[in-house]
């Protein structure tokens, strides 16, 4: 049973790379978040829900222990704190906070595949993930655990290689390091506690999860409307990216053409519109989708 009577709790990063997008997701799911005097806890005014704002490293444990019912955290953090105990269930990837945990080396170091790391010292903030990766490949390397500024370790002669998160690659470049191996691909995920909430809150929990899934799947999705010659219908439908069965409707006074409406789950680029037009489509409209269930 959740520790706070009568209220659900969602753990989000207090301040960092995931904070803003986590709050956006919560808000897009219809929760009105009120920032009170308490910095640790934000209240939701239209539902019995609180947001617990903590360091991202604490989120997996809070959710696994049932202190929070849901949490938003990077897969990298989730993997690093994984131990033999109860774990939070990963419900869905959220499409933000994308990064890759990479092994990088200075260009002066000879490299011919993972075996070249044998006997080296590697600096990282992710010792457990790195150790697992090395063990799987039978590589005996020393790991130096650093909490930040991992990229300076080779210059300071603390280590000869690093294993750190990369998004744009600018940090590696600025420090003269070259990425060599991908240890983990990561993004933010929604996690759920193995501890059930109070009976009266289960329905609300299920509904919040379903709404968040709707928000995530509507991101990037577009509603496309166009007119098409009947003869080109099959070709035009095939061009629409990630559309299921589109709705086809008659056009008043036109036997040779139809209106096509479709939800496209994948990005609709200008190139897609140009191909649709070349296939005979006209009056093409692409609209954003606000909610989807
Ligand atoms: O205080 P708290 O513990 O909550 O925050 P934190 O400092 O541990 O984490 P924070 O806010 O930096 O990152 C939160 C999460 O964002 C991470 O756990 C990842 O899941 C995700 N994320 C996405 C990243 C990056 N991209 C990222 N680029 N986390 C860190 N970085 C760092 C990386 O460590 C390196 O220093 O950014 C630098 C590299 O970036 P590029 O763009 O130069 O490649
Ligand atoms: Zn952290």
UniProtKB/TrEMBL annotation:
One Pfam family it belongs to: HisG_C
> Which organism does this sequence originate in?
Brevundimonas denitrificans
Q: What is its EC number?
A: 2.4.2.17
Please give the cofactor(s) recorded in the UniProt entry for this protein. Answer: Mg(2+)
What InterPro entries does the annotation carry? ATP-PRT_HisG_long, ATP_PRibTrfase_cat, ATP_PRibTrfase_HisG, HisG_C, N-reg_PII-like_a/b, N-reg_PII/ATP_PRibTrfase_C
What would be an example GO MF term here?
glycosyltransferase activity
Spell out the reaction equation it catalyses: 1-(5-phospho-beta-D-ribosyl)-ATP + diphosphate = 5-phospho-alpha-D-ribose 1-diphosphate + ATP
Protein name as annotated? ATP phosphoribosyltransferase
Query: Where in this chain does the record put each ATP phosphoribosyltransferase catalytic domain?
Result: 55-213
Q: Major location, coarse class?
A: cytoplasm
Secreted keyword on record: no
- All copies of the Histidine biosynthesis HisG C-terminal domain together span 219-291
Q: Which UniProt keywords apply?
A: Amino-acid biosynthesis, ATP-binding, Cytoplasm, Glycosyltransferase, Histidine biosynthesis, Magnesium, Metal-binding, Nucleotide-binding, Transferase
Which family is this protein grouped under? Belongs to the ATP phosphoribosyltransferase family. Long subfamily.
């Amino acid at each position: 049973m959740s520790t706070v009577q009568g209220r659900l709790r969602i753990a989000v990063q207090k301040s960092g790379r995931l904070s803003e997008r986590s709050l956006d997701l919560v808000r897009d799911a219809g929760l009105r978040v009120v920032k009170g005097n308490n910095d640790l806890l934000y209240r939701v005014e239209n539902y019995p829900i609180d947001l617990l704002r903590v360091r991202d490293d604490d989120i997996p444990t809070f959710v696994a222990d049932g202190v929070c019912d849901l949490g938003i955290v990077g897969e990298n953090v989730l993997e690093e704190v994984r131990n033999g105990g109860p774990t939070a269930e990963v419900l869905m990837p959220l499409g933000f906070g994308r990064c890759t945990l990479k092994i990088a080396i200075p260009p002066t170091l000879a490299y011919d595949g993972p075996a070249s790391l044998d006997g080296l010292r590697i600096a990282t903030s992710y010792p457990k993930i790195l150790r697992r990766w090395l063990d799987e490949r039978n590589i005996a390397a020393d790991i130096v655990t650093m909490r930040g500024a991992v990229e300076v370790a080779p210059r300071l002669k603390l280590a000869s290689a690093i294993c750190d998160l990369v998004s744009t690659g600018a940090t590696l470049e600025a420090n003269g390091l070259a990425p060599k191996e991908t240890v983990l691909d990561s993004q933010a995920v929604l996690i759920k506690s193995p501890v059930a909430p109070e009976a009266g809150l289960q329905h609300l929990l299920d509904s919040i999860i379903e709404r968040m899934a709707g928000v995530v799947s509507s991101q990037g999705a577009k509603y496309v409307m166009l007119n098409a010659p009947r003869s080109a219908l099959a070709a035009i439908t095939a061009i629409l990216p990630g559309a299921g069965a589109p709705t086809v409707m008659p056009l008043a006074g036109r036997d040779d053409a139809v209106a096509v409406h479709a939800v496209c789950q994948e990005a609709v680029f200008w190139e897609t519109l140009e191909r649709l037009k070349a296939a005979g489509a006209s009056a093409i409209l692409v609209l954003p989708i606000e909610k989807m269930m």
